[in-house]
Amino acid sequence: MVNDEWGFPREQRGAMKITNLTSVVVGAGMRNWVFVKITTDEGIVGWGEATTEWRTHSVVGALEDFGPIVVGQDPFRIEHLWQTMHRGQFWKGGLVTMSAISGIDQALHDVKAQALGVPIYDLLGGRVRDEIRMYDHLGGGAPEMVYGNLPAERAAEVAVQSVEAGFDAVKILPVPVVGALPTGADLRHAHDTMAAVRAAVGPDVDIMVDLHGRCTPAGAAEFARRLRDHRPWFIEEPCPPELVDELPSIAACGVPLALGERLVGRSEFLGVLKTGAVAVIQPDVCHCGGISELRRIAALAETFGVSVAPHNPLGPIATAHNLHFAAATPNFLIQEQMRNAVPWYDDVVDGALVVRNGKTAIPDGPGLGLAVVESEAAKHPFVADEQIMSTHADGSVADW
Length: 400
Description:
The protein is of the alpha/beta class.
């Protein structure tokens, strides 16, 4: 058996070959969307997304580094290509590398499903549900929400707009940049924001609270206790992701915890799951290793009785891939979308997501069921990422 320089058996390759791997960068306000395009010699084009805030150039460079490994290979061999990119070189993992792998992996799934004439979820075992529940990240409708300093009344207005648009679940970020322990003013702001949103949307809309990893474990526990009476569905990223051993003390406050947007690969999730403190994990299909690794992470979580709500404040290609994952994953809970990230969100792709009664339909195939309209994407070129830096009142660096 004759192998090529990357160890691929030549006589076992399929007829189709990858001819090109490129990226399409779209300036989308707070972040640049990084779309990944794989072209084949049969004319099939697959799309993925590797959007990584403040790392756009790095991720595009990593995609270029993977070009010699991917081009010329059989796109049907998704797992072998994933293993080659992840394990076949000396330097492994890391956010930038895994984001590039994630985008390529998504695009490969799109190519293969198109070639077979089926939706991507059929490659993942087929549908296990008939519709997908969505929630709206309110930071898209009110960018000040991301900083945690949006007035309570305005947060309530934005939440009502989401409910009127068809959502029955929303996520708010009511916690400003805080010190080691929140002040009375910090706690009042978070409580008043949560109370205003709850009063505005009523008892039946689920409200998720994002602490954005800004708090110490003790601070997160204070916020959890203060917000508990208004029934947050879960509290997201209560403290910096490396403080895994502290999660049980926060969970003891009686509010379900969710986290995972800054974790890559299943090994990092395993450490979190072993604590028994999380109710929901939130891997990001653009960072965790693509659909291939997202599926493995979900299966791992299922053995711990934990649900999956993929993180996704990113572009429409990532959203579409998440919907295929959701369609085929038993322990899927709910899907995030930042619907108001930019007013032309749907223009850069050849389809639009419609949410009715908090849910959206299963995507149609073949493949992803969505493609980038490159002429529209070109209208929104790369824009240097806004460098958001947070500091405490005394000028010291804070977790953003």
